[in-house]
TrEMBL record:
It holds the Pfam family MIF4G. This is MIF4G domain-containing protein. The keyword Nucleus applies. Residues 1-26, 693-724 are annotated as: Disordered. The lineage of its organism: Eukaryota, Metazoa, Chordata, Craniata, Vertebrata.
Length: 825
């Protein structure tokens, strides 16, 4: 009994001990949860929640101060949508504990310096804005904030630095003024006027060569496509004119003004922006996307004008919500719909309940004509499409925006589907002036969206495209959308859902073209061998046996040049590859297996550049009605190293593909090819860096263990020697891969220049306008190459400038290169 009690006592003691060690962790987790969740939907008011939380944190400061500091610094950086909630909390803590307030300010400044050095400019922007709002909470003194702003703006006077560096520091100041402008102007009006004058001077002398490359639409009507700093400066000027009155930012600290105004304030420590370094990667400039304005909201709440600061605040908050929740579409959609300012602005259309399946139908538009459906402009659509169309690339993967819009349609079936319907109609109307890159993204989104709503759309409303030339953007867009829809469905389904009048735009039936199938073609050269090869493959003949059969194929090149004929026989490639793909035409998997099984034969047939080009031509000839199959087979040929990336580029720009040059799938193949080349180089570079690090670690260990025996030293030297040999081999592979990468870009840009130059000369000779739909597509595809692969291309700018983009080049083509260079000036 006593033993049991003793045992129980021991167990109890151990259990108590475990509770003591885990208790701090539990408290820290609880503190993190309380801080992160404050400001969310609650039965209590926000003010009472903040006051209660401030009391809890104040009581825990003696034991958990460092943890509380870390959490508050983290939420300031990562949860910008709740910025004013957390600044109010910090203000309340500062009023109760002045020392803690000082330590928090110092921690924020340290974090700001670290984020800038780490090129985390978006997070740095949130930290600057947070510090600004602490002025409103009487934590930071206004004069020291103005002094920091002056240091930021002084960057515009630096010499030999990229313009994008100055842009970021000016943007950091301007984008913070909606929160703190009124407070600073009341206390430091002279200094603020001087600051804004300096910014005004900088914006007037700032170069804007890059703007045309970043615009979604080339036309300025109905909505101007403004450069982001110009637009924000106009919004701040209007805010100043309105005496800094802003009515949209949530300001919970106003309720605590009597408490906060009694608190002692802190001066920011002197902050000097980190010096520019060659490895600094500043954010690229942007053009503000505009699709709706107040004229699109005939009833209900009015959308703020494009130069209203509320427009900036609303859109910025919605962007922040998407950034914080983009990985979880359901959570992201819910957060957007619970946006606190949604009742002040027309975040979506307020209409009668309509089923999502009614979306895109003629009945829907009849409802509109009866005025049963009243449109109100949608900020949701503008923000989401603004991100999707952002150049050079969206902040998140394209499919995220599709799934987010589908989720929003499910949550608001009575409003958002119809907003999307009107938005799509507006973009269709403006296709003539829309950037080709954005048209690609639009058709990807639209086809994916339709596939989730039974492909329902009022196609008759787009009947105007049928009267236009096939090269015009509208018929081209409809054709590519139907092509993409077929990838997500099947051919007959597309035929059934589209009106008969659109038959000319419906994709062809994706059948295989095998020229040796019909006995009527028995007179074709190689016909008998094709039959023999087919039988050999069916009978599982070896590679050697099949190659023996192929020896009987006559070589059409032999008459011209015997030697060349021995190395390259186009008919031999046609006979074997057409037969092989015909037998494997049932599915993607069958085709992949066939290429893998007969890899050795294909490599033997394509051991020269002409062979690689011809195998690509054959793939296109047999699957020309099935662009998706062409894309995946070319991808497989690259992966298995049957063809190289330069061969694919040469094939796509060859005369035989000229009629397909503006098709979407052609550019899908080219960008996929470039990405593969880039990944290949990155993979080898990573292996080289890892080998160098391993050698360095071994040498460091060798120095540390220098007193060990001779045998260990000998083994170490052997290992070092092996690593050095490996590094040397990897160094050669990296140089070879980089040379191949540079050659790929040279091939692509050279082909672009040749095609565009020929077009311009031809138009000038014939005295016709050069600005045709083909020219617009081609010049914007050139822009797309620069934009999508800008990081890699920047490594070879010297070579490109010396060999291709010289001063003698036509100024229309050279302008694209100059716009690209201006992105990082």
């Amino acid at each position: 009994m006593s033993r049991r009690r003793h045992s129980d006592g021991d167990d109890g003691g151990q259990s108590h001990k475990r509770r003591r060690t885990s208790e701090p962790v539990e408290i820290e987790d609880r503190l993190e949860s309380l801080i992160c969740r404050v400001g969310e939907k609650s039965t209590s008011s926000l003010e009472s929640n903040l006051e209660g939380l401030a009391g809890v944190l104040e009581a825990d400061l003696p034991n958990y101060k460092n943890k509380i500091l870390r959490i508050l610094c983290a939420v300031a950086r990562l949860l910008p949508e709740k910025l004013t909630v957390y600044t109010t909390l910090v203000g309340l803590l500062n009023a109760r504990n002045y020392n803690f307030g000082g330590e928090f300010v110092e921690a924020m400044i340290r974090q700001l310096k670290e984020t800038l050095k780490a090129n985390l400019y978006t997070e740095a922007l949130y930290l600057v804005r947070f510090l600004c709002d602490l002025v409103n909470c009487h934590v930071i003194a206004a004069p020291s904030m103005v002094a920091m702003f002056e240091n930021f703006v002084s960057v515009t006077q630096e010499e030999d630095v990229p313009q994008v560096r100055s842009d970021w520091f000016v943007y950091a100041v301007l984008s913070s003024l909606p929160w703190v402008g009124k407070e600073l102007d009341e206390k430091k009006d002279v200094e603020m006027d001087r600051l804004l004058n300096q910014i005004d001077g900088y914006l007037k002398r700032r170069l804007k060569t890059h703007v045309p490359m970043l615009q979604v639409w080339t036309a300025e009507k109905p909505h101007p496509q403004e450069e982001y700093l110009d637009c924000l400066y106009a919004q701040i000027q209007k805010l100043k004119k309105d005496r800094w009155q802003e009515r949209h930012i949530l300001r919970p600290y106003i309720a605590f003004d009597s408490v906060l105004c009694e608190a002692l304030q802190h001066n920011l420590p002197p902050f000097t922006p980190p010096a520019h370094m060659p490895d600094c990667q500043y954010p690229m400039p942007r053009v503000i996307f505009r699709m709706f304005d107040y004229t699109d909201a005939p009833e209900g709440p009015v959308m703020p004008g494009s130069h209203s600061v509320e427009r900036f605040v609303i859109e910025d908050n919605l962007h922040n919500i998407i950034k914080s929740h983009w990985k979880e579409r359901k959570s992201c959609a819910a957060q957007l719909l619970s946006y606190p300012g949604k009742n002040k602005i027309p975040l979506n259309y307020h209409i009668v309940e309509v089923s999502p399946l009614l979306l895109h139908t003629k009945e829907f538009y009849q409802l509109e004509n009866r005025n049963l459906v009243h449109f109100h402009s949608s900020v949701f659509c503008q923000v989401i499409f603004g991100e999707l169309f952002q150049l050079p690339c969206p902040p998140h993967i394209d499919v995220m925006y599709t799934t987010l819009l589908i989720e929003l349609c499910k949550l608001q079936p009575g409003s958002l589907p119809q907003v999307l319907a009107q938005a799509t109609e507006m973009m269709y109307v403006r296709l003539d002036t829309m950037n080709t890159i954005c048209i690609d993204r639009l058709l990807n989104w639209f086809s994916h969206h339709l596939s989730n709503f039974q492909f329902r759309w009022s196609w008759d409303d787009w009947v105007d495209c049928l009267a236009l030339d096939a090269d015009k953007p509208k018929p081209k867009f409809v054709k590519e959308v139907l092509e993409k829809c077929m990838r997500l469905s099947y051919h007959q389904r597309i035929v059934d859902i589209v009106p008969p009048t659109f038959s000319g735009l419906i994709p062809a039936d994706p059948i295989f073209f095998y020229k040796y199938q019909d006995e009527a073609n028995s007179a074709l050269p190689g016909y008998a061998v094709a039959i023999a090869v087919g039988n050999a493959i069916k009978n599982r003949a070896s590679n050697e046996e099949i190659l023996t059969v192929l020896k009987d194929v006559p070589n059409p090149n032999q008459e011209d040049d015997d030697d060349e004929g021995e190395g390259f026989n186009p008919l031999k490639i046609e006979v074997f590859l057409q037969t092989l793909l015909h037998l494997a035409a049932k599915s993607f998997s069958h085709s992949f297996s066939a290429l893998a099984k007969f890899h050795e034969i294909l490599k033997a047939l394509t051991d020269c550049d002409e062979g690689k080009l011809h195998i690509l031509r054959v793939v296109y000839e047999v699957w020309k009605n099935h662009p998706q199959m062409v894309s995946v087979l070319v991808d497989k040929l690259i992966r298995t190293q049957i063809v190289d990336c330069a061969a694919v580029a040469n094939w796509l720009f060859s005369p035989s593909m000229a009629h397909e040059f503006t098709r979407f799938y052609v550019w899908e193949i080219l960008h996929s090819t470039i990405r593969k080349m880039n990944k290949h180089v990155q993979k080898i570079q990573k292996e080289l860096e890892e080998a160098k690090d391993k050698l360095e670690r071994q040498q460091h260990k060798k120095q540390k263990d220098s007193g060990d025996e001779e045998d260990m030293e000998k083994n170490s030297e052997d290992e070092d020697g092996q690593l050095e040999e490996q590094i040397e081999r990897l160094q050669e592979k990296v140089e070879s891969a980089q040379s191949e990468q540079k050659n790929l870009f040279l091939v692509i840009f050279q082909r672009f220049i040749m095609m565009l130059t020929e077009h311009l000369v031809r138009c000038e000779t014939g005295s016709v306008d050069f600005s045709t739909p083909w020219y617009k597509n081609c010049i914007e595809r050139l822009q797309q190459i620069f934009l999508m692969h800008h990081v890699t291309i920047q490594q070879y700018m010297g070579t490109l400038e010396n060999l291709l983009f010289t001063a003698e080049l036509d100024h229309h083509i050279l302008a694209v290169y100059q716009q690209f260079c201006a992105l990082q000036l």
